[in-house]
Design a protein that fits this description.
Layout: E1 5-8, E2 15-21, H1 30-38, E3 40-46, E4 61-64, H2 78-88, E5 94-97, H3 99-107, E6 112-114, E7 120-128, H4 130-134, E8 144-151, E9 153-155, E10 162-166, E11 174-177, E12 180-183, H5 191-200, H6 202-205, H7 213-222, H8 224-239
Parallel strand pairs: 2-3, 2-4, 4-5, 5-12
Antiparallel strand pairs: 1-3, 6-9, 7-8, 7-10, 10-11, 11-12
Length: about 240
Amino acid sequence: MRAGVWSYIADDTSQKLLVLQHVAHEPLGYIAEYANEKGISIDVVKLWETSVIPPPEGYAGIIIMGGPMGVYEDFTSKTGELTLIRNVVGRVPLLGICLGSQLLAHALGAKVYPNPGGKEIGYYDLELTEAGKTSTLFRDFSPSFKALEWHGDAFDLPAGAELLVSSKACKNQAFSFKNAYGVLFHLEFTSEMVRNLIVVDREWTRKNFELDEAKLVHDAENFARLMKQQCYLLLDNFLR
């Protein structure tokens, strides 16, 4: 096994995913559970251990996870990730989540910057755009749905992309470009992951934001089943 690459090999290897994970405290959550239940194999590149990304050939899809760094900052894996994105867009289905969506937007020539509406931390109401209502990625989603937000940055819509999801505090929540998708929000976080992130990110969440941690923990438990259902649906649509 390559250093920094963890592989889960399913009994039925009908499909295989490449997942880029930026930090240890933001694991795959419901994505790993989905793959286990569906018999999908995963290669997870732990980017805090290695910046070497495998060639994209042979994967049914690529998922780029979130992380605390900003696209406008320097970090070890940034160049390699942007190169990968530019090489696979239009060839291999790609899903960018939070930081992953920002990297996708940046790779397509759009600007990434601190959100003028401020941070979004917690469970928010999101709205499908008209394009989102007909998008294959959000097939069978409610026109208005809940999702976990954990970001301070936003991105402009890349030229030629379609806006799929919006929120009141941050217009560009999800977009598509060919067979690549960026979603700024999280559906993959389990309630345990949310509780851990509250501790890990406490300094960040309390800077210029008033977070009710008790409410967030309650919401994480209350919406856990819904988040799992929506994450599974999104992944079904992504791999369809």
